[in-house]
Automatic annotation (TrEMBL):
One MF annotation (Gene Ontology) recorded for this entry: ABC-type transporter activity
GO biological process, one term: response to antibiotic
Domain ABC transmembrane type-2: 36-270
UniProt keyword annotation of Transport present: yes
Family: Belongs to the ABC-2 integral membrane protein family.
A matching Pfam family: ABC2_membrane
Protein name: Transport permease protein
Length: 272
């Protein structure tokens, strides 16, 4: 029996946390050494806001009235969380393809630290990206019309969605282990984003597509954020619209419950 397996539980937990912090620092160090990629990742959503808010915004109408940019920004916040799955996938798949993950598995470290470190690092990156998006929103005239606690609740729901999507990206990367397969992921991510209520209300869509958009996990977070920020487009007659906050919690928790065990099991089976 190895020394690691007989460590007391508190000690194993302490070492697992320490290993996770070390690997989180590894990802942060990569960003410092390659700031261009980090900055581009932060600014791409800003470009999306400017494009949709100013180029297409004049042709858009908000059901019930209101400024389209205020309707758009909560959707763009959620889209930023969704697009982050591509960077998670690329980082994990690159490490797997180059043998870095196999070297980590050969070291005397907690097996959970590699995945937890990646998840923590990507959540920090997403928090920075969300801060940039919030600042961009304020710059183009968006504002929340509720109190600070409600606004912080909306930010928490966005980061919860991102945390769930991180584990989806980790699992897919460990399954495919090919960085170039990110194109396949984009084919899935973009339709998921555009068949939601991020850019237009489901009320403007055909009946079957409106149902798909209403029950889209991304739509739940967008609708909840519009409600908590008190922006145009909040509410509605459908069940998802009336229970947006509850669904914005339930969908990410369901994804976490499914994909965390899948990712951990896949990681442990690498090389078999």
């Amino acid at each position: 029996m190895s020394a690691t397996s007989v460590r007391p539980v508190p000690r194993r937990l302490r070492w697992a946390v320490a290993d996770g912090v070390t690997l989180t620092g590894r990802a942060v160090a990569h960003w410092r050494r390659q700031p261009g990629q980090f900055v581009v990742g932060l600014l791409f959503p800003v470009l999306m806001v400017l494009m949709f808010g100013y180029l297409f915004g004049g042709a858009m109408s908000v059901p019930g009235g209101g400024d389209y940019r205020e309707f758009l920004l909560p959707g763009m916040f959620a889209m930023t969380m969704l697009f982050g799955i591509e960077s998670t996938y690329a980082a994990v798949a690159t490490d797997a393809a180059r043998g870095v993950t196999d070297r980590f598995r050969s070291l005397p470290m907690a097996s959970s630290a590699v995945l937890a470190g990646r998840a923590t690092a990507d959540l920090l990156h997403s928090a920075a990206g969300l801060a940039v998006m919030l600042a961009c929103g304020v710059a183009v005239g968006w504002q929340w019309r509720s109190g600070v606690p409600a606004a912080l609740g909306a930010v928490g729901l966005l980061l919860l969605l991102r945390f769930a999507l991180i584990w989806v990206g980790i699992h897919l990367a460990l399954v495919l282990r090919r960085p170039e397969s990110v194109v396949m992921l984009q084919i899935l991510v973009w339709p998921l984003g555009f068949t939601s209520n991020a850019f237009v209300s489901p009320d403007t869509m055909p009946g079957w597509l409106a149902a798909v958009a209403a029950w889209n996990p991304l739509s739940a977070t967008v609708a909840a954020c519009r409600h908590l920020f008190a922006n145009p487009g909040a509410g509605g007659d459908t069940f998802p619209a009336q229970h947006a906050v509850a669904l914005a919690v339930a969908w990410p928790l369901l994804l976490i419950a499914v994909f965390v065990p899948l990712a951990v099991r896949r990681y442990r089976r690498l090389g078999r």
